[in-house]
């Protein structure tokens, strides 16, 4: 019993360390702490942009994924974090008609908290650039401007991709 | 202490139930059991195909994700499962130059087991079609034929997308 308990404690410590280890060395963006562990978040959608030749995956924390899968996205619930991971769109050498991720561009995030971020439409907007994850510090308004076409969709472009039940 | 133990047991039961609940109702493909829980797997890459107008995300189980992130992919280790989730490429209405997932096409998987699947190049090949996840039963050779251009890459098209450490 004590051994089992010890194993469980180590397991939880493992989760905590795995989730937050990368928090320590990366500076905040717009005052928002880096969301450690995002690389293990589940997929909500993908996208392809021809205007800037990028491929993207849209990930979510547990709150966001649960909201996406239950259709609870306008508005998204407080606590939801959406992450968009962006790569340059690059020819796949083994299949002529396919493109795949090339250079890593940035990872950007929307943090839903309708009270804390009331002045920025209920979302905290943050971005970390390049493989070194340098914080973007040009102000949330840069993000908001681009998302204005979807202000009636709680400022989110992404429709959760259809998935089997 | 007893309460903590009870909470932990419930937590583990939750993991098990969450992971395998959707196994029960979906038939095997090529004799391979449906890999329940794949919707929560982490992302390894994305891709875009112009020949059949699809967008894809490539997911992996823990063994595959660890292999991808440590560069241990030629060969992939036994136990790795790669999943490719495929949607029709569809115009995003709120951004002219972007496409996003439309209809769900299928989810297909490669299961690495160099002994069990020795005759099919170390991989078990399976696919489940449509939102109802109807098993594909036309034979693994259909999959293998298409993957032949990458037989020197352990039969895998995907290069893990670059990610921050």
Give me the secondary-structure topology.
Two copies of one chain form a homodimer.
Chain A lengths: L1 H19 L21 E8 L4 E7 L1 H8 L11 E11 L6 E15 L10 E7 L4 E2 L4 H8 L18
Antiparallel strand pairs in A: 1-2, 2-3, 3-4, 4-5, 5-6
Q: How many helices of chain A?
A: 3
Class by alpha and beta content of chain A: alpha+beta
Query: Mean pLDDT score of chain A, rounded?
Result: 91
**CATH class label of chain A:** Alpha Beta
Spans where pLDDT lies below 50 across 5 or more residues of chain A: 14-22
Order of helices and strands of chain A: HEEHEEEEH
Shape of chain A: globular
Which percent bin holds the helix content of chain A? 10-25%
User: What is the number of independent domains of chain A?
Assistant: 1
List keywords for this structure.
6 strands; 165 residues; globular; Chalcone isomerase; 3 helices; six-stranded antiparallel sheet; homodimer; alpha+beta
């Amino acid at each position: 019993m004590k051994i089992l308990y010890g194993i469980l404690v180590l397991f939880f410590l493992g989760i905590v360390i795995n989730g937050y280890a990368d928090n320590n060395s990366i500076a905040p963006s717009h005052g928002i702490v880096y969301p450690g562990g995002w690389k293990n978040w589940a997929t909500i959608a993908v996208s392809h942009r021809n205007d800037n030749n990028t491929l993207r995956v849209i990930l979510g924390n547990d709150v966001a994924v649960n909201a996406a899968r239950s259709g609870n996205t306008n508005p998204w619930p407080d606590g939801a974090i959406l992450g968009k991971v962006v790569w340059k769109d690059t020819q796949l050498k083994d299949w002529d008609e396919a493109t795949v991720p090339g250079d890593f561009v940035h990872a950007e995030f929307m943090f839903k908290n309708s009270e804390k971020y009331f002045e920025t439409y209920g979302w905290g907007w943050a971005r970390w650039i390049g493989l070194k994850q340098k914080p973007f510090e040009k102000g949330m308004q840069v993000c908001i401007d681009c998302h204005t076409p979807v202000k009636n969709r709680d400022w989110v472009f992404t429709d959760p991709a259809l998935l089997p039940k």
